[in-house]
Specification:
Length: about 290
């Protein structure tokens, strides 16, 4: 789930309640850049309770308008395969914003029926005088700036809620225990992004499992089962780094040996090779790349 995409979509108009409901559902499946949306129209139909033909028509319209982009990828599902979409955030940001209703403010210079002028206020005080211009809890009332300590607490709570939101909703239980366990993990030095990735990996791994086959959130966090996911994520990162290094070493060998395929090496790859110390500027120039 992406809070970023959901927030952007929630603030825009899509032309109809049906289209808005579908976009909000798809935003729940997207990554922060809008990519990775893959769920069949049947899934949208079941979860939103909209008609199947209505869903097909609305999705086709959104694709034609460029709000949704068919990436050309396909994912296997029980009915064959399903399309992988990307939410076009650049286009969505240009859509009309949902405007708040304007407040009707009385002109203080306008005389009352009795001929007297009044200042703006919310009513009369007990002593007969006019009350303040706005109530203390009015959304436009100026609030005191957050202290650094309060800002840190607020950011921590937001991070914990973001982690918990990634956990499959039908398996959430004992929110306070989950909060405490997530906070403890973050305080021990675990990065929020890594914890988010671990929760997403577990959710994807157990997708479609029955309730008896999965762990409830309080037990999952309390048992530290996210550590297994983190270990696999770290192992995947190491494998990726090793593969990238192996690829760079192959390019370095081309440059050193002045292989004809050197001309296909990009500037970005050259920067990486030089930064890794696999080749020198002299070797690059000798290969005719600069």
């Amino acid at each position: 789930m992406s809070w970023v995409v959901a927030k952007i979509c929630s603030e825009r108009k899509f032309g109809s309640p049906v289209r808005k409901q579908i976009m909000m559902f798809l935003a729940d499946k997207a990554s922060d850049d809008g990519s990775g949306v893959w769920c069949s129209k049947g899934t949208i139909h079941r979860h939103t309770e909209l008609g199947a033909s209505t869903v097909k028509r609305a999705v086709s319209e959104l694709v034609c308008e460029g709000v949704l982009i068919d990436t050309g990828e396909r994912r296997r599902c029980k009915h064959g395969s399903t399309v992988v979409y990307r939410v076009n955030l650049e286009l969505v940001r240009t859509l009309e914003l949902i405007s708040e209703p304007s407040e009707k403010v009385e002109d203080p210079s306008r005389p009352r029926p009795d001929g007297e002028h009044v200042e703006p206020g919310t009513g009369l005080r007990a002593d007969g005088g006019l009350g303040p211009e706005r109530a203390p809890n009015h959304p436009k009332t100026t609030q005191k700036p957050l202290t650094r300590e309060r800002e840190a607490v607020s950011e921590s709570i937001d991070a914990i809620e973001a982690v918990l939101e990634c956990y499959p909703r039908d398996r959430l239980r004992n929110k306070q225990t989950c909060f405490d366990e997530i906070a403890s993990a973050i305080n021990s030095g675990v990065l929020v992004d890594d914890l988010l990735e671990a929760v997403r990996a577990y959710a994807e791994e157990t997708k479609g499992y029955t309730r008896s086959k999965v762990s409830f959130s309080d037990n999952w966090f309390k048992a530290g089962r996210w550590k297994k996911e983190l270990a696999e994520i770290e192992a995947s990162r190491i494998r990726k780094q090793e593969a990238e290094l192996k690829g760079l070493e192959k390019l370095a060998a081309w440059i050193i040996g002045r292989h004809p395929l050197c001309r296909h090496i990009t500037e970005l790859q050259l920067v990486s090779l030089l930064a890794a110390g696999l080749v020198t500027e002299a070797q690059v120039r000798a290969a005719g790349l600069r």
